[in-house]
Amino acid sequence: MLCSFCRAGVLLGLFLSSLPGLAQREAGGPPTQDPFARRATTAPTTGMGSYQSHAYRSGALTIRSTTGATVRVHPWAEGVVRVEYFPAGQPVSEIASVSVVQRPYIFDHPARLNRKLEPYLRNVQPDRSLVRNQPTALVWPLVTNTAQEYVVRIDKKTLRISFDYQGQSLVSEAAGAFQQLPASGGTAGGMGISFRLTPDEHLYGTGSRALPLDRRGRQLTLYNEAHYGYQNGEPTLNVSLPTVVSSRGYMLFFDNHTAGTLDLGATEKNTLEYRGEGLNSLAYFLIAGTSYAEILDRYTTLTGKQPLPPRWGLGLIQSRFGYKTEQEMQQVAGRMRRAGFPLDALVLDLYWFGGTTRQGDFRWQPQQFPDPKRMMRRLDSAGVKTILISEPYVMRTSRNDALVRSQGLVGRDTLGQPYTVESFWAGPATLLDMFRPAARQWLWQQYDRLKQDGVGGWWSDLGEPENQPAAMVYDLGPTRRVHNAYGQDWNSILSEGYAQQYPQERLFNLARSGWAGMQRHSVFPWSGDVSRSWSGLQAQVPILLSMGLGGVGYMHSDAGGFAGSNMDAELYTRWLQLASLGPIMRPHGVVAPEPYHYPEPYQSIVRRYARLRYELLPYLYTLAWENSQTGTPLARPLNYGETRLDPQSVFPLLSPEEEDQSWGEAARPVPTWNWSTAASTTWGSERLAARRARAFAASNAPALTNVNDQYLLGPSLLVAPVQQPGQRRRNVVLPPGRWIDFYSHQTVAGSQTVGIAAPLAQIPLLVRAGAFLPMAPYVPTTARYRTDTLNVRYYADTSVPESSFTLYDDDGRSGQAAAGQQFTLIAFAGMLRGTQADIEVRQSEGRFAGSPAWRLINLEVPRVLAAPTVVLLDGQPVPPTEWAYEAASHTLRLHAVLSEKPLRISVRGLQLDADLSATAQPELLTLEAPTRPTFSTSTELRYTLHTPGTYPLLIRNAVGEIVRSFPAAQQAAGPHSIAWDGTDNAGRPLPNGLYSVELQGQHQRLVLLRD
């Protein structure tokens, strides 16, 4: 490809690189028909009526209305309430859910009652009733043992419900639920509900969308869609989630999988409205919490926690469209190893079964893969797993076409006959009915047979489904009612099959689509067929973070970009830098996705970051464990707040006498998640609640509420990817606290925006002051990963008197590690008082197969100005051979062996560099990539001003002469653009060639190629 570019000349090559690439389609383009045609939702509505009577039964409050409608309010769990609406004529019954797995607390079934929540259900008022029947409202206080949780109020006139939480107003319905009546134009009826928004409220979540993190002011479709070659700004992608997280401390989860819409203040700026197409009843959950972490913990308990991945899933997974032979698979693995790149898996696209027309075969293509078992054994012996693609379509040309049609395993038409999708891009096909038991069993048999061949993981593609005509019918219902649940039920075939037949193994499933609760099926989703462009790269951080706020912690992208044939080495490098510091690292594309295709220095830069990822595996694997326990995503928005507890945050709960106690030999146990800390007294509970409220408010400072190009990787690392071509310095928004540059160890104060150098060889990466960052020696595959040596950096800082981190370790593959207590926790705690640092390292008693009998801890303390006066281990001086001070790097290094006995290290006379960097002034503006870097008629020159002012914009030719200047004028902060048609200052057309845009010392390249 590069040679053809050279032969065609530089300008022609640049022009070709701007064209869209071949799709993963036989015809080389997107479908000719739009399978996701949007429907109008405007239609007349009617309300539920007014209050008539109420009753309490089985832990739920049931209200009958004057129209015969029913409202049911059910306390589900701590902080979780379910509300259901049944219109007149609709029987009150259980509403089926494809998302919820947590069972409710029902008073009439003692075996199902959580005693901790019994006060919820025994909340007898002074008049011996559960609910206060006031003249205008029903008031139902829901309390726990010591503190009031919810107060539910139902307005008698409108049946509108409002909620207080922990003594504060939380949220209220705007006008109660309503029925949407069928319109004369054919619009389906349904139901909806609306809620009031406060003016300063921010709304997050809603699934995978290439939109800003804060979704306030947008109307969104709840219908999973595949958009080939999408770029930044695409509103609906492969995973839409019916969840909205509010900066006021709650989540709304609409537990209906039908096609729907979310209006987040688009029509009425202070109203949130949900509408579900064709609904005969409506259910939603209100989930409250004192932090985003607590809300997600409760939501993922409700819909299922994500199991731990196999450790190899956190390594580099190399993919391409596509490897066509067994020989090519071996060659790619060999080239990756020889080029010095780590590798843990190779992905086989649709050529393993023979190509596009053979979808549904589930059989190896014998000419290209003569001995797949041997191939996978050989790869596995080198630490490389094999991942296979499968699709839900069975082509009419497939060997299994007659079988699935004759046995009724596919979607049908209204007459019950197999439905052929004529408009599918690969040719006519049928769609498997993932809701039909016989089809599920048949599909699992295919997976099981392939697994026994040696398949390590799975790739579930096109699961929206990508093309699913509305006239199709399945066991669960017609297309538009079941579309969003299709991928969910497909994913469950693998998760249920593994749970039943391979409970000791962990499932890894790359899936493109799903619904609320998809995380419990061991799904590791990617963001679809993204354009290989800077705009495609810019879409990835908000997609990643929004999915994380919907309980899906492993969202990632086709690193390097999929849709396109261009080879932009800078774009590839920046994308791979981002991927190396994300949940999953998987380069994928049609052209040159493997890093060894790129010249120096790009290849070495990518190699460096891929290796850094492997060095960070102790930290990343601990984040995966945290996700499996609490639902907290690996990558988090800047306003996510704390999830781990520093001991110092306990101080406000202690009495003055307790605060004065020293950290002696009887060290406090190292705590875990701060929002689950319990206080033993009412006084302590009040102080804890107040501290949580302050922390949540601080985390939602205005500067942090809508940052779309940065994220926190776990509690300690801040990643700021470079997303503009040619950018070598960028602004970074810092949360509170101090932050330390990962490379230079310079320290900057938080709660501000700073300018950070971003040379091509690195992206801004900062560490939270006080953090413990566990790392391990580099290995080329996780098959060689061990924790008998840990390289632990302690970023001691005078602003953080106490800090801690708990590392999780197990065998990396057992599906029963947590249940069988087959894991080890290694807790690091540090206390800094004056010039003395006390560090404790201890491990739990848990063990697993292959667990080291002891561990060498290589402790590094950066930013040390001079050698300490003494270093003590368990009160005894450490020999000079076991510690050293490196004056050149200002680093203190210490070696100690950890076994059953805790390590207690004391560094006396420690002089830390407390100076803050004075060279971190923020950039005044960011010059962004033009809309069309290669153009023939016109292009938009785009930039964002961070500081208002007057900034002249210049166009220079290839020799640096100014050929066009745009008048400078006072401009406000925010995004701006200028159209340029390729003319000079006199309006004369300029010749074809290379040009550059210059603004405040920043540059972007342009190529003018007139027809």
From TrEMBL:
<keyword id="KW-0378">Hydrolase</keyword>
<dbReference type="InterPro" id="IPR048395">
    <property type="entry name" value="Glyco_hydro_31_C"/>
</dbReference>
<dbReference type="Pfam" id="PF13860">
    <property type="entry name" value="FlgD_ig"/>
</dbReference>
<dbReference type="InterPro" id="IPR051816">
    <property type="entry name" value="Glycosyl_Hydrolase_31"/>
</dbReference>
<feature type="domain" description="Glycoside hydrolase family 31 TIM barrel">
    <location>
        <begin position="307"/>
        <end position="623"/>
    </location>
</feature>
<dbReference type="Pfam" id="PF13802">
    <property type="entry name" value="Gal_mutarotas_2"/>
</dbReference>
<dbReference type="InterPro" id="IPR011013">
    <property type="entry name" value="Gal_mutarotase_sf_dom"/>
</dbReference>
<keyword id="KW-0326">Glycosidase</keyword>
<feature type="region of interest" description="Disordered">
    <location>
        <begin position="26"/>
        <end position="51"/>
    </location>
</feature>
<dbReference type="InterPro" id="IPR025887">
    <property type="entry name" value="Glyco_hydro_31_N_dom"/>
</dbReference>
<dbReference type="Pfam" id="PF01055">
    <property type="entry name" value="Glyco_hydro_31_2nd"/>
</dbReference>
<dbReference type="InterPro" id="IPR013780">
    <property type="entry name" value="Glyco_hydro_b"/>
</dbReference>
<dbReference type="InterPro" id="IPR025965">
    <property type="entry name" value="FlgD/Vpr_Ig-like"/>
</dbReference>
<dbReference type="InterPro" id="IPR000322">
    <property type="entry name" value="Glyco_hydro_31_TIM"/>
</dbReference>
<feature type="domain" description="Glycoside hydrolase family 31 N-terminal">
    <location>
        <begin position="140"/>
        <end position="263"/>
    </location>
</feature>
<feature type="domain" description="Glycosyl hydrolase family 31 C-terminal">
    <location>
        <begin position="695"/>
        <end position="771"/>
    </location>
</feature>
<keyword id="KW-0732">Signal</keyword>
<feature type="domain" description="FlgD/Vpr Ig-like">
    <location>
        <begin position="943"/>
        <end position="1002"/>
    </location>
</feature>
<dbReference type="InterPro" id="IPR017853">
    <property type="entry name" value="GH"/>
</dbReference>
<feature type="signal peptide">
    <location>
        <begin position="1"/>
        <end position="23"/>
    </location>
</feature>
<dbReference type="Pfam" id="PF21365">
    <property type="entry name" value="Glyco_hydro_31_3rd"/>
</dbReference>
<comment type="similarity">
    <text>Belongs to the glycosyl hydrolase 31 family.</text>
</comment>
<protein>
    <recommendedName>
        <fullName>DUF5110 domain-containing protein</fullName>
    </recommendedName>
</protein>
